[in-house]
Here is the input.
Amino acid sequence: MKKIDLVIIGGGPAGMSAAISAYNNGVKDILILERAEELGGILQQCIHNGFGLHKFKEELTGPEYAWRYEQQIKQRNIPYMLNTMVTKITKDKKITAVNSTEGIFEIQAKAIILAMGCRERSKGALNIPGFRPAGIFSAGTAQKYVNIKGYLPGKEIVILGSGDIGLIMARRMTLEGAKVKAVCEIMPYSGGLARNIQQCLNDFNIPLKLSHTVVEIHGKERLTGVTIAKVDENRKPIMETKEYIPCDTLLLSVGLIPENDLSRETGIELDPSTQGAIVDQNRQTSIDGIFACGNVLHVHDLVDYVSDEAEIAGKAAANYLNQKAENNIHISIKTDGKIRYTVPQRFTGTQKTTLYFRTADVYENAVIHVRDGEKIIYSQKKRKLLPAEMETITLSEEIIKNVSSNSLLVELEVVKNA
Amino acid sequence: MYDVAIIGAGVVGCMIARELSKYQLSVCVLEKEADVATGATRANSGIVHAGFDAKEGTLKAKLNVQGSKMMPKVCEDLGVNYINNGSLVIGFNEKDLKEIVTLYNRGKINGVEKLEILNQEQLRNLEPNISKKAIGALYAPTGAIVCPYELAISAMGNAMDNGVQLKLNFHVEKMERKNDTYYIFSNTETVSAKYVINAAGVYSDYVANLVGDNSFYIKPRKGEYMLLDKTCGNIVSHTIFRTPTEKGKGILVSPTVDGNIILGPTSVDAEDKSDNSTSYEGFQKIMKEVGENVENIPLNKVITSFCGLRATGSTGDFIINMKNKFVNVAGIESPGLSAAPAIAQYVVELLKNDSLKPEEKADFNPKRKSMHFFKKLSVEEKNKLIRKNPSYGKIVCRCEMVTEGEIIDAIHTNPKATTVDGVKIRTRSGMGRCQGGFCSPSVVEILARELNTSVLNITKSGGNSNILVCRTKGGELN
Here is the structure.
């Protein structure tokens, strides 16, 4: 059995960034296992711009952003295997994988970084009544057909869900000559970034129908249309508002789910809110020496933050391998429900740490408090908080050192609910 | 000219084809869709009923019990997954318990073995997640589960390997009988045969009408289902029925042979014979009733939902008869899947007792390689195969871990898959939690390559169900 210090599962932006960070921190025996035929992950099909604004202070396309990391991997001669699918990870870090040249093989790792990314929520999970014709695609699948394969999946489009990929695809399909008739969002606010609403819908006069959903699918062979309806505050369709829209294609952009099937089987503790692993400030999971970063940990809106997070995980894996890891405290971080989750979910060390979080609703003029028992140890005002946009607060080493209980509560004080 | 033409390639038509392929007969199967097993066989509970439901003395009762007993051997020969998980009919009140005793006695008369009546404690020991309000149950250890379309595909594949011909996309529009020969017309082709077997499911009354037989009609009845993710697979291990009422057997909760949990079916009369649409009311009914029977069902783990149409006959029983060498096999609603092996035998006996006196084939091969043979190999065997054929090392469907090699097999093994759904029901690619999000573009490409056509011609399920409409930017075709 092959023995390798650090195995990284996934060669997308998280995996590549983690590998480079681990290498820069002294780990030389690294292997990236990537299931696709090239590095870069989902970035390769994201040919629009807007990547890298934070990381490189310039606007790159997805493949350009991926290319920059791929170059760094190659400069460092970090080995990677393509077309290789990991099928099993054990608690003691034995990895089973399969590809066409090696067959099924095992690797014993000393440390593992999980960077498998996420997948799209499917139509099946939505319980939309009606038929099951051709012409229903998740937005990312349609993006692959258009941008990678060079084929158009349809010409008259309705999009359900206003996640970023759906918004990007509304513009993309329009540029390819398709007619996007509507984007329906069941929530009263968009699931995507404000800049995407502007640049992908408003600029092309594509209507965004908030508090609307698809209530019936028509067409026995290829989709012929959808019935949409307004929903009430409990997200139940108001049938009197039904409206039929003829279309040949329904794209779904109804959420992303971290792909943790492997992690679950390994026995890694998962957070039901993020659907990713529960991690500490080093992005170490409940199993020592197994780290997670990127969209497999929690879904990010910007790849730049994925790279940041992967750098933390890569460095931490290096420290773990060099036995420099310090696990001297145990503080768990809870949230109040208005804040859906934080990543990390616990502290095992006192270094300065940024907490990433999302809110459950839209809030304006809110204050984020961090509470240590009765005592508020940190507060920060936020002018506007949207569920679609990941937020951060940063706690200094000083603050973390002085925590007296073993559990912090991150809460949101509503000054005015939007 | 064929000795026998079978109209309809559902599980019944496929099993009859296989049974006939044991004899020196020329047989063809005519199917209007682009694949076998597209009707009620596709959208089905997949239960091999023990046989206590059907009223004693009926064909349903007789063929159910026989079929259920034949099923393990049939599945073994065809390499079809068969799990003898046992079934439970749970009761909530005294009236239910009385009905359970009736079922028990009926099962005894029908010849069902090992039936037992359980008290609440015995029931909960067997199924800890069952509703605390359930006070007793009928336990049928001989109840089992199969994958209905796997059975149909495998039966047809085996029949074809033994000489049967399958004509897909053959929509029977007209039939004539001249000089003891039936002429069966589609809009493009004519097939002639001495005998015709009408196994056309919900359309069997239409087919019977074509030869002037108006002795029965078929009322399609919808059965909607919801399927849960494999992570929920251990909620129950038995098939859980509620005590039947005048309204029918109600909604069941059952594991599937593939490790999912199936919930359903509803029972609603359909307006038209092709209306297999699901409904909001159907989903509500399923979710409400399964929650009453079994606790803690994670309804947020639904990965897909679908609807089948039962071929409910006007006589209440299976309609199997022969007149002028035209055999009706109609009204095959539940327990049709369970009865299918026995129905096939019964129909072939009808033919044998007529003027057809076929010789058995000396070289009939009852065996078929399992559609899922690769999954069952040891690591060493898999690696040997991957070295010989590297496409078995390339995972295409991540959720169900289906390799490119298995997909290529599905496209080249009888009955050959030509559509995305065809690949899906043979290999399970696209049947997992992402429902084809990742793998469908690859499956479309593999189909186009293996069938030597453009991806633009690849359909989901035949007809006009194309996946893609054109090149981007109106670019050149390839």
Q: What stands out?
A: The radius of gyration of chain B is 22 Å. The mean pLDDT of chain B is 96.
